[in-house]
Each structure stands twice: as structure tokens, then as C-alpha cells.
What we know:
Helix content of chain A: under 10%
Order of helices and strands of chain A: EEEEEEEEEEE
Largest sheet of chain B: 6 strands, mixed
Helix content of chain B: under 10%
Number of helices of chain A: 0
Structural class of chain A: mainly beta
Distance between the termini of chain B: 41 Å
Mean pLDDT of chain B: 92
Number of strands of chain B: 12
Distance between the termini of chain A: 37 Å
Number of strands of chain A: 11
Oligomer: heterodimer
Number of helices of chain B: 0
Low-confidence stretches of chain B: none
Largest interface: A-B, 23 and 20 residues
Radius of gyration of chain B: 13 Å
Strand content of chain B: over 45%
Shape of chain B: globular
Amino acid sequence: SAVISQKPSRDICQRGTSLTIQCQVDSQVTMMFWYRQQPGQSLTLIATANQGSEATYESGFVIDKFPISRPNLTFSTLTVSNMSPEDSSIYLCSVVGGNYGYTFGSGTRLTVV
Amino acid sequence: GNSVTQMEGPVTLSEEAFLTINCTYTATGYPSLFWYVQYPGEGLQLLLKATKADDKGSNKGFEATYRKETTSFHLEKGSVQVSDSAVYFCALSDRDGQNFVFGPGTRLSVLP
């Protein structure tokens, strides 16, 4: 299955600022996915990032708040913009690994103060 | 739409106890079923999977059998260890890997 490197692993940010999370995959993949895991909760899909086109956002998530880039088939970024304490979560990227299901990055633990 | 239901946690067991975490699903067609594990401070790791009825996924002493008649995929382990303490997520996807859905997660704590 694919190996995903995600960074930063954690960060503490001031409210009103933005953080960009990077996800690098060791193989070319068509779709990459960004998830949010709020404290004590399950995973919620934020958006699907396809190379060469706009990301597709799930209900409740908008591009102005979570802009996504997908410049090539091995890399994507998610930016959490104008942060507030409610954005404190773990953010994970993932790719579909064929029969292995989804492979996940190690996650970015974000705390907004 | 597709959905996954898991037994609510937290689950607290003594070392070497038997573990069962129930998972049931609702889906159209023939989904693939997964268990993921999230150790403290880490991301998700695929624990095991099954892609068709009566398949048994197994890994690290954990097992789960795809039961189409009961739409279930219960996770079991005969003897848990302290190192198994984690959150366990049941999940499913369509046959082609689309429409991935997670259950709410079950936190397991194993005491020495």
C-alpha cells in the first residue's frame, strides 16, 4: 500500500491565523482525501482533491475556510484559514489503496489558542 | 446511504481478557469492510479487511468475519494486551473503494 508523509505532526496556532498541512504520497494516486477528527469524535470527510481540478467539498465545509491544492499526483495541501478554537482537531489525509482500503497519513494535531 | 454502527465505548478490560467490539452496517450492494486502529497520538492504521461475505480478516491476533446475513463485522481478540489500548474504527466502502464511511469509534483500555 501507499506510504503517506504528512506534516506538521502537530502545531499550536493563534486564532485568526492560517496553517497549511502538507501530504506527500510515495506513489501516484488519482484522488486524495482530507478528513477532520474532532476531539473524541470519528472522522469527517472535508473534501476530495483531484489533480487538475477543483476540490470537491462535503456539506458544511467551504473552500474559503479550507482551501486545498493538488499540484500533482503525489502531493496535496490543506489550509485551515482564519482559525478559531473550534478548529482544534486532528486533520488527516488519505488515499485509496486498492484492495487495502484507505491509507492514512499520521495526522496533524492542531490546537488553536 | 451507507452507515456503520459500533458499540459504544469506552471498553475497559484486564490483560488477557477476550475482546469483542460489535459493528453492524447498512449498505447497498456488496461493500468492503474494514477495521482501523488509532493508537494514542497517532493516525489511523488499517488493522484488517474483508471484501466479500464469509471472508475472515485477521491481523495481530484480531479477527473479524464478514456476515452478510446479519450485516455485521464484529472485531474479536482472544487475549488482549496493554499495547492494544487504542480507538478502533469500523468502516466500509463501496466495492470500487468509493463512498468510504467510518463508524464512531470505540475506545479500548486494557489494564495490566
